[in-house]
């Protein structure tokens, strides 16, 4: 449950990174930035590998027929995907040529995609069999939450809406409408498509690589699988292009802060696009897409996404309840104490969920979370109110967001956490040896508030 608050989020042109950097400091902002970039890289890799799967279906082949098998490698990394690299290379060329041209392509592609989605839903429901829903939750409650945790990777693209704020005419109005509206519409479509698929086929028979194409063939509509596969390829191409534009803007903004090499923030004068950032991000996606299986990518991506959503919820509470020089020492202490209890009880709930099938632990952790949120609501006055638009039901909604995101983290596997830990350790080492000093030197050179603003906007070399 991602939470974003106030027009500041829009003005900084950097989405979650800028928001967390302002509210929680450079270190947390950089950790968030690293994970956001990881999301984009892994997300692009996952979609590129799926592109290969649907392309194979379109040609009546198994996806691995188009992959190189390196049997000396681990099963999770042995299926090398050259088609994924080729697709990402084409997307890279399109993304660096023109943002306007990419927008026109996306507009046309979106119309086609809507038509394909309507076809899948209508045609699929004509083959619906309610018997496939007889075993509605075959893996129980735990299976539902495990699936929910993995599915969070589908929501990484929404942050790109805020990243594109500097290219909109009225970001204060357009970004909230675009962000909330797109999330509502997309979530509804996800649910309807999932319902349609499960009515067409038993969950036991759903194909992991190309579910809808195989489902249509299984119900006797073999011709429809070609429509679905072609529509999926078009849709995934659009997703990759939009992600390429958004992730390059993210890396550009981080480069402007000098936390990463500032040459990443260079914008090509002719095309108006950040060529260096685009090439670096898509090259990283291509390397990962070449080796890594979709299952590993989706789990690691979900951990990163849930972690960022949790941090943004904390950032919102900090923004509402703490203002330097205005919040009293007593209120500051109370706020930190209640926030620590909210985090502690949420983590304890997640650990208990991951390690036990009982219920006694929840009788302790959940009341702690509830009382901590009530305490924050009743005993700590809010120090700041949103000027233009803001999240309602504070502190309840951000507190619930923290609890849910941490709880879902407890549903993911140990190996994914180990990979996430290694990546986080790597970016922390980079920050303390390079990013911290570069950003400090840049900030020190800014002798006025105006100069500091120029650093954020990339005007200081």
Automatic annotation (TrEMBL):
<dbReference type="GO" id="GO:0005886">
    <property type="term" value="C:plasma membrane"/>
</dbReference>
<feature type="transmembrane region" description="Helical">
    <location>
        <begin position="303"/>
        <end position="323"/>
    </location>
</feature>
<dbReference type="InterPro" id="IPR002293">
    <property type="entry name" value="AA/rel_permease1"/>
</dbReference>
<keyword id="KW-0029">Amino-acid transport</keyword>
<feature type="transmembrane region" description="Helical">
    <location>
        <begin position="177"/>
        <end position="203"/>
    </location>
</feature>
<keyword id="KW-0813">Transport</keyword>
<feature type="transmembrane region" description="Helical">
    <location>
        <begin position="335"/>
        <end position="353"/>
    </location>
</feature>
<feature type="transmembrane region" description="Helical">
    <location>
        <begin position="389"/>
        <end position="408"/>
    </location>
</feature>
<protein>
    <recommendedName>
        <fullName>Cationic amino acid transporter C-terminal domain-containing protein</fullName>
    </recommendedName>
</protein>
<keyword id="KW-0812">Transmembrane</keyword>
<dbReference type="GO" id="GO:0015189">
    <property type="term" value="F:L-lysine transmembrane transporter activity"/>
</dbReference>
<dbReference type="Pfam" id="PF13906">
    <property type="entry name" value="AA_permease_C"/>
</dbReference>
<feature type="domain" description="Cationic amino acid transporter C-terminal">
    <location>
        <begin position="389"/>
        <end position="439"/>
    </location>
</feature>
<dbReference type="GO" id="GO:0005313">
    <property type="term" value="F:L-glutamate transmembrane transporter activity"/>
</dbReference>
<feature type="transmembrane region" description="Helical">
    <location>
        <begin position="420"/>
        <end position="440"/>
    </location>
</feature>
<keyword id="KW-1133">Transmembrane helix</keyword>
<feature type="transmembrane region" description="Helical">
    <location>
        <begin position="79"/>
        <end position="97"/>
    </location>
</feature>
<feature type="transmembrane region" description="Helical">
    <location>
        <begin position="279"/>
        <end position="297"/>
    </location>
</feature>
<feature type="transmembrane region" description="Helical">
    <location>
        <begin position="359"/>
        <end position="380"/>
    </location>
</feature>
<dbReference type="InterPro" id="IPR029485">
    <property type="entry name" value="CAT_C"/>
</dbReference>
<feature type="transmembrane region" description="Helical">
    <location>
        <begin position="104"/>
        <end position="124"/>
    </location>
</feature>
<feature type="transmembrane region" description="Helical">
    <location>
        <begin position="223"/>
        <end position="246"/>
    </location>
</feature>
<keyword id="KW-0472">Membrane</keyword>
<comment type="similarity">
    <text>Belongs to the amino acid-polyamine-organocation (APC) superfamily. Cationic amino acid transporter (CAT) (TC 2.A.3.3) family.</text>
</comment>
<feature type="transmembrane region" description="Helical">
    <location>
        <begin position="144"/>
        <end position="165"/>
    </location>
</feature>
<dbReference type="Pfam" id="PF13520">
    <property type="entry name" value="AA_permease_2"/>
</dbReference>
């Amino acid at each position: 449950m991602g939470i974003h608050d106030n027009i500041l989020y829009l003005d900084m042109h950097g989405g979650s990174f800028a928001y967390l950097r302002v509210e929680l400091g450079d270190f947390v902002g950089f950790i968030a930035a690293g994970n956001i970039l990881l999301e984009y890289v892994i997300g692009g890799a996952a979609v590129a590998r799926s592109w290969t799967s649907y392309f194979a279906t379109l040609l009546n082949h198994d996806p691995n027929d188009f992959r190189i098998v390196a049997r000396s490698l681990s099963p999770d990394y042995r299926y090398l995907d050259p088609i994924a690299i080729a697709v990402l290379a084409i997307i890279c060329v399109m993304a660096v040529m023109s943002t306007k041209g990419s927008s026109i392509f996306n507009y046309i592609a979106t119309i086609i995609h809507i038509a394909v989605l309507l076809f899948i839903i209508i045609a699929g429901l004509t083959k619906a069999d309610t018997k496939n829903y007889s075993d509605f939750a075959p893996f129980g409650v735990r299976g539902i939450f495990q699936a929910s945790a993995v599915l969070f990777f589908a929501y990484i693209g929404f942050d790109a809406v805020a990243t594109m704020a500097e290219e909109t005419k009225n970001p204060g109005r357009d970004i909230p409408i675009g962000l909330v509206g797109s999330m509502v519409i997309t979530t509804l479509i996800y649910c309807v498509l999932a319902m349609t698929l499960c009515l067409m086929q038993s969950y036991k028979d759903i194909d992991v690589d190309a579910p809808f194409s195989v489902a249509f063939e299984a119900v006797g509509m073999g011709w429809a699988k070609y429509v679905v596969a072609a529509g999926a390829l078009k849709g995934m191409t659009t997703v990759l292009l939009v992600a390429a534009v958004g992730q390059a803007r993210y890396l550009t903004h981080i480069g402007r802060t000098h936390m990463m090499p500032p040459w990443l923030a260079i914008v090509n004068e002719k095309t108006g696009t950040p060529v260096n950032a685009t090439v670096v991000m898509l090259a990283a996606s291509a390397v990962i897409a070449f080796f890594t299986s979709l299952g590993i990518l989706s789990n690691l991506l979900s951990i990163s996404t849930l972690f960022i959503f949790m941090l943004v919820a904390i950032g919102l509470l900090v923004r509402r309840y703490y203002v330097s020089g205005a919040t009293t020492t007593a209120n500051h202490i109370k706020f930190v104490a209640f926030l620590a209890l909210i985090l502690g009880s949420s983590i304890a709930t997640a650990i208990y969920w991951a390690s036990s099938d009982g219920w006694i632990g929840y009788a302790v952790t959940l009341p702690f979370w509830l009382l901590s949120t009530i305490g924050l609501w009743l005993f700590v006055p809010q120090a700041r109110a949103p000027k233009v638009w803001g999240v309602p039901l504070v502190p309840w909604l951000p507190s619930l967001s923290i609890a849910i995101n941490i709880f879902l983290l407890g549903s993911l596997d140990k190996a994914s956490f180990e990979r996430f830990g290694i990546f986080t350790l790597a970016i922390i080492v980079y920050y303390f040896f390079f990013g911290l000093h570069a950003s400090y030197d840049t900030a020190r050179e800014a002798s006025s508030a105006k100069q500091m603003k120029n650093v954020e906007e990339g005007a200081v070399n």
